[in-house]
Amino acid sequence: MRKIICVMTMLGLCGSFMFAATIDEANKAYNDGDYTKALESYKKLCDEKEAKACSSLGYMYRNAKGVSENATLSQEYYKKACDLGDKEACTNANW
């Protein structure tokens, strides 16, 4: 029984890593024009404190890429990216 639990745990951990988005995957989706997938990936990564993902969300909301333009959300995401250490986002947060 203990062996089954260990195997199930390992499979669960492997599965979560296999489906975890990376910034490169999110950028590829964005560059391919798959804004829905990019948005979903960036949001997940931003929630995980990935500064560049937060900055990308700010850009998407600022420039209406796959979303309606929303200056408030754009600035919130740029500010979060800035707080996480993205210096370029600090400048963009004040547009």
Describe the structure.
The protein has six helices and no strands. The protein has 95 residues and is mainly α. It has a single domain, classed as Tetratricopeptide repeat domain (Serine Threonine Protein Phosphatase 5, Tetratricopeptide repeat, Alpha Horseshoe). Helix 4 (51-63) packs antiparallel against helix 5. The longest helix is centred in the N-terminal third of the chain and has 18 residues, at 2-19. The radius of gyration is 16 Å and the shape is globular. The chain starts with a helix and ends with a helix.
The share of residues in helices is over 70%
> Which term fits the overall shape?
globular
The CATH class assignment is Mainly Alpha
Q: Main sheet, how many strands, which sense, barrel? A: none
Domain module count: 1
Total helix count?
A: 6
Mean pLDDT: 86
> Whole-number radius of gyration?
16 Å
CATH superfamily: Tetratricopeptide repeat domain
Short description:
By secondary structure, the protein is an all-alpha fold.
Core attributes:
6 helices; 95 residues; globular; mainly alpha
Task: Explain the layout of strands and helices.
Layout: H1 2-19, H2 23-31, H3 35-47, H4 51-63, H5 71-83, H6 87-92
Helix pairs in contact: 2-3, 3-4, 4-5
InterPro entries: HcpB-like (IPR040239), Sel1-like (IPR006597), TPR-like_helical_dom_sf (IPR011990)
GO molecular function: beta-lactamase activity
Subcellular location: Secreted
